[in-house]
TrEMBL record:
Annotated ranges, domain Knr4/Smi1-like: 52-186
Protein name: Knr4/Smi1-like domain-containing protein
Organism (species): Fusarium musae
InterPro entries named in the record: Knr4/Smi1-like_dom, Knr4/Smi1-like_sf
């Protein structure tokens, strides 16, 4: 299932760079989820973001998993991931830390992409959550290896787009986007709507 909001035009790359996008993510996330973040030992919104990755670290990651999506590399140059929560931001993302090629059982999590050849299956990248969470798994296939023009639901991929998706055993299927950045932009818009409505996660307790 693709995320309902689809492409976030108001936060398109030509309008909003990664620095602004991540700062807005952290600022809104801190307002919405401050209590849980403080319990994790964070003192301010800036603590949600990790330090930037170095070019050497990017090269080492690509030597391990193959060519990374350009938008993902641009993000880790600004912040090598961000913290989430048990469900909040689906655990966040650890950036290049613990990045690996997915295990052989990844075929259980790729059915929605249609028929993939073995070479494509072997290039699925597994990302790790940044925070202890409720079993969220993060995957992506770099556009360098993604060849399918559409997935099994008939959703088409434009040039440069690629599947990024999340899966948890307790959920009914996966949630997917057409890039890692699209997921982050979706989260920013949702969080900023909550801030505008003066809602926090404590309101749901």
């Amino acid at each position: 299932m693709r995320a309902q909001n689809g492409r976030q035009w108001s936060l398109a790359p030509e309008r909003v760079g990664w620095k602004e996008l991540l700062d807005r993510l952290a600022g809104a996330a801190w307002i919405v989820n401050r209590k849980d973040y403080q319990e994790l030992g964070l003192a301010c919104a800036e603590d949600i973001l990790y330090s930037p990755a170095t070019e050497e670290e990017i090269s080492e990651a690509e030597a391990k998993v193959g060519e990374l999506p350009s938008d993902f590399k641009d993000m880790v140059r600004v912040a090598n991931g961000f913290k989430g929560g048990w469900h909040f931001l689906n655990g966040g993302i650890n950036g290049l830390d613990d990045i690996n090629l997915a295990d052989d059982d990844v075929e259980n999590y790729t059915w929605f992409l249609g028929d993939l050849d073995q070479d494509t299956h072997s290039k699925v990248i597994a990302l790790s959550p940044a925070t202890e969470c409720d079993g969220f798994m993060h995957f992506m296939i770099s556009p360098a290896y993604w060849r399918n023009p559409e997935n099994s639901n008939g959703e088409t991929f434009s040039d440069g787009e690629y599947p990024y998706w999340q899966w948890a055993s307790w959920q009914a299927g996966e949630t997917s986007w057409h890039s890692f950045r699209e997921w982050v932009a979706t989260e920013v818009e949702q969080l900023e709507r909550m801030v505008k409505k003066r809602k926090t996660l404590d309101d749901d307790d």
